[in-house]
Amino acid sequence: MAVALYALVSTVRQAEKDLSIPDQLRQMREWCARNGYSVAMEYVELGRTATDDRRAAFQQMIAEATMDPPPFEAIIAHSQSRFFRDAIDFGLYERQLNKANVRLLSITQPTASDPAGGMTRRLFSVFDEYQSKENGKHTLRAMNENARQGFFNGSRPPFGFRTVETERPGRRGKKKRIEHDPTEAGSVRRIFDLYLQGNAGQELGHKAIAAYLNARSLNYRGKPWTKTKVYQVLHHTACRGELAFNKTVHKTKKTKPESEWIIASVEPIIDAETFVAARHRSGARPRERAAAGGEFAHAVNRPTRLWCLWCLWCGHDLVDRKGRQVSLLHLQQQAERRRGEVQEQKHSDGQARPGRPRFAGREGIRVQPRAHAPGDAQNALSIRAFEGAAGARVIEARARCGRSGAKQTL
After folding, report:
1. Is 244 helix (H, G, I), strand (E, B) or coil?
2. Helix (H, G, I), strand (E, B) or coil at 332
């Protein structure tokens, strides 16, 4: 019987040591020789986790296994955890292989091909998933404590910093801290200066700053600057002396609650006032800034029909008491319902239902908060949206800055 071998290591460090992959392949070849199987193909995965299917060699193996006819009759792995560490995905891919008459075999966890063997394989996959999550939990706990003690967990520091080894021994070598990189720190200061002061009396945005730096051969670690990289530098809190760890979920990249963040103090590159001023300008969006009055909230013209409201002081969304983002359409609907001015519309079934109120036009609409002083993010905002140049209708509602913890109603 022709078979395919699949070997995997989940980290780049394991791949660099060049020990696990050769050992897996050696054991699988010897097992195939003892059982009279001929090895048709070998697939090797380096530095990829088995918790998902984003693996190039794995996808190639599945694609070839489901060909008609398949080039092999079974896939051999050292253990089931090399194939998958997710019980649901394991079951789905095993079903896909079964439809193609390709078996999945493990040399260290042999199971039968009957229903009892299928149940055993699923139990193995559940335990593999549980073990993977437990290992991740304990690893994250250790990394959080390492960050609390002021050491650096990541492999690459933020732009403007570099890693230096300390005398404290770690799990692999010595622990690291970050310090200023003289060349990169100078570029960071120049970016903030260009963003706030401009160049030759002209304001520069993210794209213009990137072009300015590229024209002077100032690169981003060997690569040209882009507006995204400039934005990341201007918004990275490490520049003001606060390096945050455990901000996002590794798998989904979603932001965690701020209560779970680990904030480590580092030497700031720029002062806090400069950082806040840059964030203020970025949140203000001069292109859409209200004409006068020093407003701290305004409407952003989106491609959709919802005009979202932003706090000009910190750049966060304005939200209602349920944490939903507030839009001009939402404010108008609230006001129209209170006034009873929602008109009925005829639908395809001939029945009249309340219509959706909307602004007659976009010109002349502006939003003005009554009270939102700088640094006073806990105060709720009283929004007034004016429609038309003459302010024919005024819509008032209550909202709060998404950064605050206030529980004000809308």
Report:
1. strand
2. helix
pTM of the model: 0.54
CA distance 282 to 313: 9
Look-up of token digits 């896939």: 75
Domain boundaries along the sequence of the chain: 2-143, 161-280, 289-401
- Residue that wins the pLDDT comparison between 375 and 205: 205
Residue 53: CB atoms within 10 A of its CB come to 14
Across 162-180, average pLDDT: 85
pLDDT bracket for residue 365 (50, 70, 90):
very low
Concatenated DSSP letters of 245-288: ES-B-TTT-PBPPGGG-EEEE---SS-HHHHHHHHHHHHH-GGG
Cβ of 94: how many Cβ atoms within 10 Å? 21
* Among the ranges given (100-114, 210-224, 239-253), the one the predictor scored with the smallest mean pLDDT: 239-253
Strands 74-77 and 2-9, by their bridges, are parallel
CATH architecture of 2-143: 3-Layer(aba) Sandwich (3.40)
Q: Domain 161-280 is of which CATH architecture?
A: Alpha-Beta Complex (3.90)
What phi and psi, each to the nearest 5 degrees, are found at residue 235? -110, 0
The band of 384, judged by pLDDT with boundaries at 50, 70 and 90, is: very low
CA distance 57 to 173: 32
Q: What is the largest CA-CA distance in the chain?
A: 89
353 backbone dihedrals φ, ψ, rounded to 5°: -130, 155
Return the number of other C-beta atoms located less than 10 Å from residue 183's C-beta: 10
Q: What CA–CA distance (Å, rounded) separates 321 from 336? A: 19
Q: Can you give 138-207 as a three-state secondary structure string? A: HHHHHHHHHHHCCCCCCCCCCCCEEEEEEEEECCCCEEEEEEECHHHHHHHHHHHHHHHHCECCECCCHH
Q: Helix (H, G, I), strand (E, B), or coil: what is residue 62?
A: helix
For residues 327-353, give the mean pLDDT.
Answer: 51
